Structures are given as C-alpha cells and as structure tokens.
Amino acid sequence: MSNKFLCLVLTVVLAGSGLAAEPERSVIQIMTFSQQPVWDAPWRFDPVRRSSGSGFVIKGKRIMTNAHVVSWAKQILVHRYQDPRPYLARVKFIAHDCDLALLEVEDESFFSGLEPLKFGDLPKVRSTVVTHGYPAGGEQISYTRGVVSRIELQNYVHSGNRAFLTVQTDAAINPGNSGGPVVQDDLVVGVAFQGMPGLENTGFFIPPPVIHHFLKDIEDGRYGGFPMAGIRVVPLQNPAYRRYLRLPDNDLGARVDSLLPIVATEKLIQLDDVLLRVGKYEVASDGTVLYEGNRVSASAAFQTAQRGEILPLKVWRQGKETDISLPMNVYEGDRSVGNQYDVLPRYFVYAGLVFTPLSLDYMKTLGQGWRDVANAELIYELYYRRSEAPDSTRTEPVVLASTLAHSVNANFKISNHALVDKINGVRIDKLEDVVRAFESTTNTHHVIEFVPNHAFETLNRADAEAAQVEVLKTYGVPKDRRL
Amino acid sequence: MNVRFIHCFAVLLLFGSGPGFGSEAAKKTPGDWERELVSVEVHRKQYDYFQPWTKHVQTVVKAGLLIGPREILTTADGLDNRTLVRLQKGGRGPWWSAGVKWADYPANLAVVTSTDEKFWAGLKPATLAEPVKKEEEIQIIRWRAGNLEVRKAEFSRFTVSHPNMSDAVHVQLELGSEIDGVGWSEPAIAGSKVVGLVFSQSGNQLQVLPSPFIRSILDAQKKGHYKGLGYFDFTWQPAENPETLDYLKLEGEKRGVVVIDVPDKRDTHPVLKPRDILLQVDGFDVDTQGDYVDAGYGHLLLENLSTRNKWAGDPARLKVWRDGRAQDVVYRLPKAEDAARLVPEAPFEQEPEYVIAGGLVFQPLTKNYLRSWGQDWERRAPFRLAYFRSQDPTPERPAVVILSQVLPDFYNLGYQESRQLVVEKVNAQKVNYLSDLQQALKKPVNGFHILEFTKGETLQKIVLEAATLDAATKRVLDRYGIDKESVIVSPAK
Q1: Could you tell me if B43 and B116 lie in one domain?
Q2: In chain B, which end has fewer C-beta atoms inside a 10 angstrom radius, N or C?
Q3: Mean pLDDT across the stretch B456-471?
Q4: What are phi and psi of B118, to 5 degrees?
Q5: Quick check: B223 contacting A, CB < 8 Å?
Q6: What does pTM read for this prediction?
Q7: What is the ipTM of this complex?
Q8: Is residue B307 located within the same domain as residue B358?
Q9: Same domain (yes/no): A359, A419
Q10: In A, what residues contact B, Cβ < 8 A?
C-alpha cells in the first residue's frame, strides 16, 4: 500500500466534511435509455435499451463522456458520487469520430460541491494510471490501476472508420467504464473507451491531444470534426525506389501512394510526392513521426490541425524539396462506410418496396456475419467502387431493403438486399431519384432494374398506386418517405 | 409428349442394346458385382497454388466399372496430373499397370484401360440403367479392405447444377445414405443395374452422375460425335411475376422465362436479345420457373437441355417471344471449356503458371488459386479477388495477373508485405497475361522497372532496379529452393 493510497483515504474523509476535491467525487455515473433506428425498416426503432457508462465533470459545468455512452439517447440520467438522486442531462456536444461527448445537466445544483477535473499531458509509456468509473459487476465506483503499455493510432470502434491516437493500458477497462477518467497525479490523462475482445489486460483510452482537439473544436459553438488530408502514405524503404525519386538514401520521407477525392488535396499533392515534414513533425521512411517520444503513424501529425486550418507540409518532388500549405477540411465521402448516428435513415416506400441508401449500418442488419451472406455487389459498391471506378460511382447507392408483402408485389422473385440500377429507365444515383422515377412516369408498368445482370421486376402502376395507402396502413408505416 | 422427345427415347433404347449395356433380367448376387467393380489407383502431382513451384504427391484409390472390352469407367476427378495409374480386381491381389484412354473433366468421366491380358480375365461388363425409378431400392457398392461393401441409399431428388469445375450444367441424382468417405466413383446400383457414379458427398447427401447422362457421352464417344459439353451462355430470370409477361406483351397463357443478359462476343451476332421470352428449347415447353418436363426425370431446370444428348457446337432450337410474336432461332451451344471467364479454371493436366522476378511472385488469377483458401474459399479468399469472378472479361481486361506474394530479399526490401495486388501495368505496358509481364520486363524505363497496381485501398506502385533484377531472381531461386523462375504454358497472347 503506498503513500499515495493513504493520501486518497485521507481526502475521502475530508470530502465527507465538504472540503475536498478528490477525483472520484467528480466521476459521474451515466444511465442512458436509447433507441436505435432499424436500418432495413427505417420508420421503426429497436426496443428501448438501458445502458450505463461513466463520465466526469470538467470546467464550465459540463460532463465529459464517450459519444457511444449517449448515442441515440432518448433520456440521460446522471448520478453523483454516492448520491441516490438522478439528474436529467442532455447532450451539448457530441463527436462521433473521436468518441467524445459533453453533457449538460438541467438542474445546475448537480454541480454544487463538485470540482471540475483538470487535464494532464500525454502520459509516458510505463507510467502508472488509475481508471475511475462505474463498470459492470457492482453499483459503486471502481478503480483499477495499470501502466501505460503503448501509444499509437488505433481504430475507434464507435465510428468504425477513423483512427486516432490511443493509449493502451493493462488497467482493466470493462463495460461501464466507458467515458470515465483515467487519472495520473490527480490529472485526467485520458477517457476510457474501448477494449479488444480476446485480449486480456488490454484496455484503451483517449489521450489528451484528442480531447483537447475536441474541446478546441467546439469553442465556436459547434463540433466540426477532425479534418483529413486524404493522403495515403506508404513506407519508402526500397533503395531502388528512393534512387528513382532521386531521394537521399536516409531514413526520411514516406511516399504518397494514393489520394482521396478532396479537391484541395488533389490540387496540391501529387502521387509519388515524398512527405518529409507535416507541421513540426519530420516524417520517417516507414511513414511514422516521433510524437512526444512515441513513434506513431504520420496521421497523428495531420490530426493536430483543426478544420479550416492550413497545415504546412514539406514534400520531395521532382528531385527537390517543396513547401505546401494544405487546407485541412473534414471529409465526409466515406460516411456510409462508418457507423452513423444522430440522423435517422432515409427511405422511400412504394407499393411495399422499401428503398434505402446503402450503408454499413444497413449491411449490419444482415447479422454479425454479414460479410459472408451479403450480396457481393453491395460490398463492392460500398467499399471498392469509389476508389477503383470513380466515374461509375453513385452519389448514394440505393438498395431494395425489404418488401412489405402485398398482392401487388407478391410475385416478385428478386431477393431483398439488391442494389437498384434503374427505375423506369432513370439511373438511380441517390434516393431522390427513386421517388422521381416512380412519380414521374405515365407508363402502365413500373420497371425496376437491379445490379448485376440487368435482372428486373415490374409493377402494374395503377395497382401499385392503389395499394400504397393500404400497404402503409397494414404495416404501420407512418410516412411513405424520409428524405 | 413431343416428337423430339420420342426420338430421344428411341436413342436410349438403342443404347440399351449396345455393347456393355446388355439387359439382365435377374437380380445380381454380390459375386456378380465383384467381377464388374475394380479399384483404380492413381498417383498424381498435386500443386500448391500458394507456392506454384511445389508439388505434393497424392495417391487416390477410386472405383472403376467394367463397361466394355478393355474399358473401365470411372470419374475424371483425381486423374489430372497423374504419374501412375494401376488397376486391381476383386478388391485384393496384384495391381496391374494401366493408362487413361480418355478423360473429360467437364463431364467428370474417364475410361481407363490396361494392356495386360491377364487383368481382364474373369471380369464382366456392368449394365448402365435407364433413368432411375424413384421407388427402386438403391445401394452403394465399393471395395473395402478386400471385401465388397454394400450400403443402402435412398432416392432424394434429381437436380440440375454445376457438378464440377466447369460451366457445363447437367442432371444429377441426389441420394441420402449413412455411408461415409465416398465420392470417388462408387457405383450406385438398383437391382442388377448401375444407376450412377457417386462423385461427391456432403454429410449424408451423395451427388451421383446418373447413368443416362453417362451413357449418352459414352455412346457419343464411340461414334466420334462427342465434342465436349456445351452450355447456355445467356442469363435468364423466372417469369413468375405475371406483370412482367404483360409488360413484355406476351399473348396467351403465362409461360417461359425472360432473357436478361446476353454476352457481347463481338465476333458473333447473338441470336438472343435481352427481354426475349424463352418459350421452348428443342420443342420442350419452358414454364415460368424455368423448368421443362423431362420424361426420364420429371421437372428439370431448362439448363439441362444444354447437355441432354447435345454437345458443344450442336444447334439448339429456341422459340422466343420477341416484338409481339413467337420466333424460332437456332442457338449454337458454346463449349463449356472455352467459356470466357475473367477468372477461369486453370487448365487441366497443366502445372500452375507463375513468374518470379526479384522475389516478386506473379500468377494468373484462376479459380484454382482462389480454392487455395480451402473448402470455404468463397468466403475466405480475399473479397476483391473473389469478386472478379462476377465480372465479365472485356477487351481492356481479358484476364487478371496478380502479385501473389513476395519472397523476401534485400532487393525487394520494403515490399515484403505486398500480396494479392492486381497488376495493371509494368513499365507503362498493360499486363493481362504473364507473357505480357515477361515482355514488359524486357523494357525498363531509365534503368527501373515500374509496376502499377489497380487503384484501391492497397499499394499502387512498386519500383525495382532493372540492372540487378536477374541476379536478384537467381539469388531468390537459390535461397528458396525453386527450380524455375517461370512457368508459362499458355501461348503468348
């Protein structure tokens, strides 16, 4: 038992007399009642789900927690340390990309006697940290101690398609810990947020650089998100390739192998540029930078910028160094391949045919093993076409998500989960095209074509229009569309 | 029943009186089967497509059936890349040297023979049955530890599907049985006749090549008519939605299926058009599910009409509904083995192709390569490579070459993790075949080889030094114990 622990005991006693500011008093238990939409029946919601997480008070009478703790919330209740009274809270800011959120409490007396926790710096590898939170397995606050195992970029599971700086620790981080502070020397050095199934003694927390980026982002009253350069950098360690680019044979510089379709990036950056420096960080030949003593992917250097900022880069191009000022903006072109929140799914129901945009959320309705059972066309469309064949990419591919059975569509043989190619000769580039194609024709039949192989189905237009109201009523669809 | 069908039936009767197909009224004893059933031992080279320069030795023992003078019928499975074939009779005793008279892999049939007169002594030909009757008692027979094993099987159904590594589709018999470890040409028998050969097993379900299908090929082989199996290269969809037939203005009762995709062959004018309604094939009415009524089997998928006593190049008379009226067209059956596929089967009897350059291993993308991911390869193989199977070849991309792996060497430092990348260009020249790659490597650009891969989430470019490529290749071959830096069997295209 260390002196540190004895000191904590002492402060608990003092706290009882209303004088102390020990961290646990500012650690909050969060109860969330949430309801997610059903992505293949988008007018419906899943049953209400009760979940619990953790949070902590920061300055400005706000509670910091993870975005995933409060996503799709219908009601949020927060509990103070050893206080049975629930308080109603609401989301003030939510950052789904970096899995952080700030809550406000309707009754400001909630914050009475609570000292906001302060943030520390990125902890050192091998240093000791203590997680605070309300994990499963009991009702009271729980502490776990561990060391910082490593620091690198990891995928953030909440968004599913973004990676940021992450700290790995062997302190137990269990369900319910999410959103709780990770403390070192009474300062918050992270927000506990995810584990890794199958690995023992492995938990992850969001470190101060990501937290500060979020807090700075919201200073203008809204959360904009982490900007992306859209530059895919690969190691440049083959001597021949370095000679080909007339680059000195040292360990500096990683090669630009591909670009995302971001106008500023495509204008300023070229394939085979060699990235030498991003901001103040020198880029090594393996595509990493030395970030506060940790060797991490150069993406971390790009993530120091706020949206709208200009990031200075130094690249090697045509045999010499070139300075570039790269505007950094948020990229939303890959929104459909990440988990989506806050905005209810779009749909259109016609004659019992349910059309909705193709997205990862939709694909997950096929079950955990959706990659094994999904139509290959959908996977290709979602993940590959954008980069392989940009000219034929649709703005928002649309799928026939499900069919609400009615005599008008009962003879359809096309299976659900099929990618829609054309309706009445109109190429379906986005959901609005579906509506336009059905509503603008005067033909006796609607013809719906699918990918691949030009498979098609037909509807008698008069019968379809006559069935519309009945189908919606039968299946309890409040509106035929959400666009 | 139409005229065409009656004609076909007559042919079957003639088969029934041919050599090897003699009728036997009485039920046989096990002793009779012991003189008809032999064992076929095949030693073969089995290639590892992950390391195409390596070959394992595999020995397969399968069943064979005497069907005529010096002719043992068996399935073609396991006969490719053979190094030694032997026969054994009576389930025990000596093995006799043998050879393969012919093997047709798409049909999965082969005839094996031996020049040794003594082998044939005491053997007698089996009788291949007419279509199996559902109510008949069926058994599976095989040699096991020197004894004839006879196990009960139950008729399940007739199906029409791809039986093996081919685009050809034909009727199959599905049986249920408790027997295990079959699929190597074991005869399914009913009474005194053979109703088919078991060619695969999944749990208790056995897939069987039915005797009438086998007989039709054997007869055509004897007469010199056999040109390989054909197939329908167009795509159709059922027309069970009556609105679709109304939309296509079909008159009369609802019938037929709708053609939705016809390959663009460029060199030949397609006789079918998308949105034709296919009403009949060779006089057989096609219903809205795509079935026709076969006198021998009942309802079968119309695809069976591409292999029902027809071969590649033969005409099929199709009746289609087009432009508001029924029209007759003649469709020539393309050869299944020549099916234009972006991801083809690797040719039979051929060692895998590859090129090693500086430790980079290039291979054509074939189904055999994808199958290297095991039985569940359709799920486990890299999605992007497997997805090529659903794409049609085009003049711009008639075939796919991949960088399958890198054998590490200091020459390829930095590229060791690269694998399964689709090659687009080498030294600015388009690469569709390994021969393209070899040619392109003869023309470096300013002393470098520049390799470009398909756009996507994976690596898109590699640069190698040209001057030291040959030395690096030699070093890699030596270090990894590889005999040849390349195997390119198919002619340069």
Answers
A1: yes
A2: N
A3: 94
A4: -65, -30
A5: no
A6: 0.89
A7: 0.89
A8: no
A9: yes
A10: 234-241, 243-244, 257-258, 271-272, 371-372, 376-377, 379-380, 383-384, 387-388, 411-413, 444-445, 447, 452-460
